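Deadline looming. Please check this record:
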Amino acid sequence: MAENTGATTAFVRVLNARDPERPYALDIFNGVFDDFVEVHGDRRYADDNALVCGFARLNGLEVAVIGQQKGRDTKQRQLRNFGMPKPEGYRKALRVMRLAEKFSRPIITFIDTPGAYPGIDAEERGQAEAIAFNLREMAGLKVPIIVVVVGEGGSGGALAIGIGDRVLMMENAVYSVISPEGCAAILWKDSAMADRAAENLKLTANDLLGFELIDEIVAEKTAWKMDGDDAKEANFEEVGKSLKTVLKRHLEELRSLSSDELILRRFQKFRKMGIWLG
């Protein structure tokens, strides 16, 4: 694991975000929430193991939870498709969101993906359409939506579950339109310049908070050093406590708003992004 110091570079943050010992969606579902029950399938094609959806309780409050899930070993990575959802994954997520809206349950999504799966089969089943449709539908949902970037937030694959009333980021997470390696390959024809690309992409939590693209940074330990299972569990527990406290606070604030206020503020939030005041 890369050392995280006060002078941490952007590319070190990228390496931290990709660390296989970070908490994944299922770790959070089972550690932060109670009574998690998974929902499978999009009712159109198949179930997508790269995107885990279901319902749970947060301090007694019933919520819908949706998260991209990577794998920690080769077998799990193959099962989860390295955390890269296909169209059926995004359609499953939207199915759960609509159920949450029907039963007036807040929605909490957890982003951790290098991007949507770019394979031919995904394109044949409408990958771009599934992502775009989710963006439109999430913008108009009448229940509170909180988005948490827990690891990698990669391009449209992240945005497809990333439209929310509040967007939070873990301290060591990253959020970008493209990976540093991909950016370097395009700009300089050399993926080895990924560190330079990472600095220019402004993809860290501090960068995005400064641009008002996210609302809050969720604190982590200064460094992620995994020395056995005990250390890993301690890190998961500490991150879980921080995350739970932040989620409770934002949910209390959002639940005090009417559905019309939620939608209007959500629209205004994303409408102002990218405005250049020169």
User: Anything to note?
Assistant: DSSP finds twelve helices and eight strands in the chain. Strands lie at 34-39, 51-58, 61-68, 107-113, 145-154, 166-170, 174-176, 216-218.
